[in-house]
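Input.
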Amino acid sequence: MQSVDGKNFLNIAVFVSGTGTNMQAMIEAGVPISLIVADRPCKALKIANEANISTALIERTNFGSNFDREEYTSRVLHTLQTHNIGLVAMAGYMTILGNSVFKEYGGRILNTHPSLLPLFKGDRAVKDALEAGATETGCTIHIATNELDAGPILAQRAVPILKNDTVEILHERIKKEERVLYPEVLKDILSGNVALIS
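Output.
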Protein backbone atom coordinates (compact mmCIF):
# COMPACT_ATOMS: atom_id res chain seq x y z
CA MET A 1 0.00 0.00 0.00
CA GLN A 2 1.45 3.35 -1.07
CA SER A 3 2.07 5.82 1.76
CA VAL A 4 3.20 9.37 2.46
CA ASP A 5 4.70 10.19 5.86
CA GLY A 6 3.58 6.79 7.12
CA LYS A 7 -0.08 7.38 6.23
CA ASN A 8 -1.59 4.80 3.94
CA PHE A 9 -4.16 5.47 1.25
CA LEU A 10 -6.54 2.71 2.27
CA ASN A 11 -9.25 5.27 3.07
CA ILE A 12 -10.15 7.42 0.07
CA ALA A 13 -12.57 10.34 0.17
CA VAL A 14 -14.13 11.64 -3.04
CA PHE A 15 -15.34 15.26 -3.05
CA VAL A 16 -18.40 16.02 -5.20
CA SER A 17 -20.87 18.80 -5.92
CA GLY A 18 -23.04 17.57 -8.79
CA THR A 19 -24.04 14.52 -10.80
CA GLY A 20 -21.13 12.37 -9.65
CA THR A 21 -20.12 10.92 -13.02
CA ASN A 22 -16.43 10.68 -12.09
CA MET A 23 -17.36 9.18 -8.73
CA GLN A 24 -19.63 6.67 -10.47
CA ALA A 25 -16.77 5.71 -12.79
CA MET A 26 -14.51 5.15 -9.78
CA ILE A 27 -17.13 2.93 -8.14
CA GLU A 28 -17.62 0.91 -11.33
CA ALA A 29 -13.84 0.53 -11.72
CA GLY A 30 -13.57 -0.94 -8.24
CA VAL A 31 -11.77 1.95 -6.54
CA PRO A 32 -12.27 1.43 -2.77
CA ILE A 33 -14.00 4.62 -1.60
CA SER A 34 -14.52 5.13 2.13
CA LEU A 35 -16.31 8.48 2.09
CA ILE A 36 -18.12 10.86 -0.25
CA VAL A 37 -18.00 14.53 0.78
CA ALA A 38 -20.37 17.08 -0.79
CA ASP A 39 -20.68 20.83 -0.33
CA ARG A 40 -24.34 20.86 -1.38
CA PRO A 41 -27.24 18.41 -1.79
CA CYS A 42 -26.64 16.68 -5.12
CA LYS A 43 -27.25 13.57 -7.20
CA ALA A 44 -23.82 12.20 -6.29
CA LEU A 45 -24.93 11.69 -2.68
CA LYS A 46 -27.87 9.55 -3.85
CA ILE A 47 -25.52 7.42 -5.97
CA ALA A 48 -23.16 7.01 -3.01
CA ASN A 49 -26.02 5.96 -0.72
CA GLU A 50 -27.19 3.40 -3.27
CA ALA A 51 -23.63 2.03 -3.37
CA ASN A 52 -23.54 1.83 0.46
CA ILE A 53 -20.70 4.34 0.71
CA SER A 54 -20.61 6.67 3.73
CA THR A 55 -21.44 10.29 2.93
CA ALA A 56 -20.88 13.67 4.58
CA LEU A 57 -22.80 16.75 3.49
CA ILE A 58 -20.75 19.73 4.65
CA GLU A 59 -23.10 22.25 3.18
CA ARG A 60 -21.89 25.62 2.04
CA THR A 61 -24.69 28.13 2.44
CA ASN A 62 -22.72 31.35 2.02
CA PHE A 63 -21.55 32.21 -1.49
CA GLY A 64 -20.90 35.88 -0.75
CA SER A 65 -17.67 37.80 -0.32
CA ASN A 66 -17.80 37.25 3.46
CA PHE A 67 -17.64 33.45 3.13
CA ASP A 68 -15.34 32.17 5.89
CA ARG A 69 -13.22 29.78 3.84
CA GLU A 70 -10.97 28.70 6.69
CA GLU A 71 -13.87 27.97 9.03
CA TYR A 72 -15.50 25.87 6.34
CA THR A 73 -12.19 24.13 5.62
CA SER A 74 -11.76 23.29 9.31
CA ARG A 75 -15.12 21.47 9.20
CA VAL A 76 -13.94 19.54 6.16
CA LEU A 77 -10.67 18.63 7.87
CA HIS A 78 -12.49 17.45 10.97
CA THR A 79 -14.62 15.14 8.83
CA LEU A 80 -11.59 13.72 7.01
CA GLN A 81 -9.74 13.09 10.26
CA THR A 82 -12.80 11.52 11.90
CA HIS A 83 -12.97 9.01 9.03
CA ASN A 84 -9.18 8.48 9.00
CA ILE A 85 -8.94 9.53 5.36
CA GLY A 86 -5.55 9.15 3.74
CA LEU A 87 -6.21 10.33 0.17
CA VAL A 88 -8.66 12.85 -1.31
CA ALA A 89 -9.93 12.83 -4.89
CA MET A 90 -11.66 16.02 -6.01
CA ALA A 91 -14.32 15.15 -8.58
CA GLY A 92 -16.25 18.24 -9.58
CA TYR A 93 -16.12 19.80 -6.12
CA MET A 94 -17.06 23.45 -6.52
CA THR A 95 -15.74 25.01 -3.29
CA ILE A 96 -12.12 26.13 -3.18
CA LEU A 97 -10.74 25.09 0.20
CA GLY A 98 -8.42 27.09 2.43
CA ASN A 99 -4.70 26.60 2.96
CA SER A 100 -5.07 24.45 6.07
CA VAL A 101 -6.27 21.44 4.07
CA PHE A 102 -3.17 21.58 1.88
CA LYS A 103 -0.93 21.78 4.94
CA GLU A 104 -2.56 18.70 6.43
CA TYR A 105 -3.00 16.73 3.20
CA GLY A 106 -0.16 18.12 1.08
CA GLY A 107 0.57 15.77 -1.80
CA ARG A 108 -2.51 13.67 -1.04
CA ILE A 109 -5.25 15.68 -2.75
CA LEU A 110 -5.92 14.86 -6.39
CA ASN A 111 -7.91 16.88 -8.87
CA THR A 112 -8.88 16.68 -12.52
CA HIS A 113 -8.85 19.46 -15.10
CA PRO A 114 -10.27 19.57 -18.65
CA SER A 115 -7.10 20.55 -20.49
CA LEU A 116 -3.53 19.41 -20.98
CA LEU A 117 -2.04 21.47 -18.17
CA PRO A 118 -0.18 23.79 -17.96
CA LEU A 119 -2.26 24.94 -20.96
CA PHE A 120 -5.66 26.53 -20.35
CA LYS A 121 -5.88 26.80 -16.59
CA GLY A 122 -9.04 28.01 -14.86
CA ASP A 123 -12.75 27.40 -15.24
CA ARG A 124 -12.93 28.37 -18.95
CA ALA A 125 -10.45 25.72 -20.08
CA VAL A 126 -12.59 24.11 -22.79
CA LYS A 127 -13.79 27.43 -24.20
CA ASP A 128 -10.26 28.84 -24.09
CA ALA A 129 -8.90 25.87 -26.04
CA LEU A 130 -11.51 26.37 -28.76
CA GLU A 131 -10.98 30.12 -28.94
CA ALA A 132 -7.20 29.62 -29.17
CA GLY A 133 -7.64 27.45 -32.26
CA ALA A 134 -5.88 24.51 -30.61
CA THR A 135 -5.95 21.20 -32.47
CA GLU A 136 -6.08 19.13 -29.30
CA THR A 137 -6.81 19.41 -25.61
CA GLY A 138 -7.55 16.72 -23.05
CA CYS A 139 -7.68 16.01 -19.35
CA THR A 140 -5.10 16.12 -16.58
CA ILE A 141 -5.03 14.36 -13.22
CA HIS A 142 -2.79 16.34 -10.90
CA ILE A 143 -1.94 17.01 -7.28
CA ALA A 144 -4.06 19.88 -6.01
CA THR A 145 -2.27 22.72 -4.26
CA ASN A 146 -3.33 26.13 -2.97
CA GLU A 147 -2.32 27.52 -6.38
CA LEU A 148 -5.09 26.76 -8.87
CA ASP A 149 -4.28 24.11 -11.51
CA ALA A 150 -0.55 24.32 -10.75
CA GLY A 151 0.27 21.11 -8.86
CA PRO A 152 2.43 18.23 -10.12
CA ILE A 153 0.91 16.33 -13.04
CA LEU A 154 0.26 12.61 -12.56
CA ALA A 155 -1.35 11.66 -15.87
CA GLN A 156 -2.82 13.17 -19.01
CA ARG A 157 -4.90 12.00 -21.94
CA ALA A 158 -5.18 13.95 -25.20
CA VAL A 159 -8.47 14.61 -26.99
CA PRO A 160 -8.54 15.96 -30.57
CA ILE A 161 -10.50 19.12 -31.27
CA LEU A 162 -12.77 18.55 -34.25
CA LYS A 163 -13.96 21.06 -36.81
CA ASN A 164 -17.55 21.38 -35.60
CA ASP A 165 -16.89 21.12 -31.87
CA THR A 166 -18.82 23.31 -29.47
CA VAL A 167 -17.82 23.81 -25.84
CA GLU A 168 -20.49 21.30 -24.77
CA ILE A 169 -19.58 18.62 -27.32
CA LEU A 170 -15.85 18.91 -26.68
CA HIS A 171 -16.28 18.97 -22.90
CA GLU A 172 -18.35 15.79 -23.00
CA ARG A 173 -15.65 14.05 -25.06
CA ILE A 174 -13.03 15.18 -22.54
CA LYS A 175 -15.16 13.93 -19.64
CA LYS A 176 -15.48 10.53 -21.31
CA GLU A 177 -11.69 10.17 -21.23
CA GLU A 178 -11.51 11.61 -17.72
CA ARG A 179 -13.89 8.94 -16.42
CA VAL A 180 -11.43 6.30 -17.61
CA LEU A 181 -8.19 8.02 -16.61
CA TYR A 182 -9.10 9.13 -13.07
CA PRO A 183 -9.94 5.64 -11.74
CA GLU A 184 -6.82 4.27 -13.44
CA VAL A 185 -4.62 6.80 -11.64
CA LEU A 186 -6.22 6.06 -8.27
CA LYS A 187 -5.74 2.32 -8.72
CA ASP A 188 -2.13 2.88 -9.79
CA ILE A 189 -1.51 4.93 -6.65
CA LEU A 190 -3.00 2.20 -4.46
CA SER A 191 -0.86 -0.44 -6.16
CA GLY A 192 2.29 1.67 -5.87
CA ASN A 193 2.70 2.12 -9.64
CA VAL A 194 2.30 5.91 -9.34
CA ALA A 195 4.12 7.84 -6.64
CA LEU A 196 2.69 11.07 -5.29
CA ILE A 197 4.81 14.21 -5.26
CA SER A 198 4.01 16.97 -2.78
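The radius of gyration is 16 Å.
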